[in-house]
Amino acid sequence: MKLYRxxxxxxxxxxxxxxxxxxxxxxxxxxxGTGPVADAFYVAFRxxxxxxxxxxxxxxxxxxxxxxxxxxxxxxxxxxxxFASEAMSGLTFVLVLLSVACMLGMPWLMYxxxxxxxxxxxxxxxxxxxxxxxxxxxxxxxxxxxxxxxLNTLGRFVESSSVSIVLNTVLTASMLLTIWLxxxxxxxxxxxxxxxxxxxxxxxxxxxxxxxxxxxxTLRLGRPRWSDGMKKLVALGVPGVIAGGITQVNIAIGTMIxxxxxxxxxxxxxxxxxxxxxxxxxxxxxxxxxxxDVSRHLxxxxxxxxxxxxxxxxxxxxxxxxxxxxxxxxIPHEIVRVLFExxxxxxxxxxxxxxxxxxxxxxxxxxVLIKVFSPAFFARQDTKTPMRYAGWSLTANTIGSVALFxxxxxxxxxxxxxxxxxxxxxxxxxxxxxxxxxKSHEHFAADDRLRRALPRILLSSLIMAAVLxxxxxxxxxxxxxxxxxxxxxxxxxxxIGSGILAYFAAAHI
Length: 509
Hints:
Mean pLDDT: 80
Low-confidence stretches: none
Strand content: under 5%
Number of strands: 0
Helix content: over 70%
């Protein structure tokens, strides 16, 4: 029950954050749309946001948490504090140097981040300026991640799970300020959002510093030292970041390729934001909670508890992820139309975003499974095996994204959908490799309860999908033809509500 309570704490706060995030994205679609300013801002936000997800959603902590936890239990709180402070000092030193170098070299780096922008000088220049403003967010979020790992190991999940609420609240305020000032798709709108990202990073860091103070674990910056502890952290951390953040790296590569098609960066961004709701609530909650839980059981030699935690995590993940994936696959047009289609986001943009969302939905279970399987490796301080699997997946995704993008364009299809297909296939490849690796070392085996539950979860999800399809057809006049935003949102609420009721009724039966 403690495991489920922790899932509920992290998942519940993440849900609150994503609700604010949806408000932000609804406003962003109206203010920025899918034009050149939107493309420039989403590229500028993608790079620091990539590091937010790499560090803030558990990848960095795959190495840090097991080491910090061993210090807490083996050497005491004071030695653990010293180790964490040492890690923070080294991380700050490296990231300050990296940030300065990248901000100065951004005009050249942009050819790598968004090569397609080079054909449009104004968009290219705007993307450079906006990325230089947002880049310090990388430093803030990296330190936030380390502090989150300290708090999570101590069993305190509230502060670390609330940082995204700060980000979405600040960016929502930035959008409202943009509307109040009367900017719609102009470069000024992009600058306001970029400065919003900068301010959010500072406030998120302040929140975690306050959380550490409350926990009696205040960290102090000092002179970086290349100690044995830091050597081990780097040896485990670099492969861990690559392995744990492979989904986000795949998306970043997709953004680079999508820059060669006008509007594609924005279409993929909006689709990404929608399928990330269930991924965040379920996948991140499991990734954050499961790693310290499994690490603790392994140190105690309780392998039965390790296996039970993994099975219950997988059961919980599929209970919520499979129906979410089905819903996003069956009614993507209805969701995108109601949430985004207004202002600068036109009816012509809806199918481009909706079809990308439909393809991403097929990969959603795999992205969550990666979060379930990875902690079993990380808790054993094995980050190289997941990194190797991630490397194979990354290679396949990169080759597939390039090949399918140009193939789809040659065939007259939406080229950016090729990127979505490659990302989805890369996710399944990585998840299956992780599963096979655990099973071959007897580190995971499905128990009787899980084997009984999975087919029933799948059947309940299929029943829900049928109900959603029929209800969507019946509500078409209110979802498509109605002009009032209140009517459309009410119809979408009825549609989603019918799916939720159908799913849980079927699951109960």
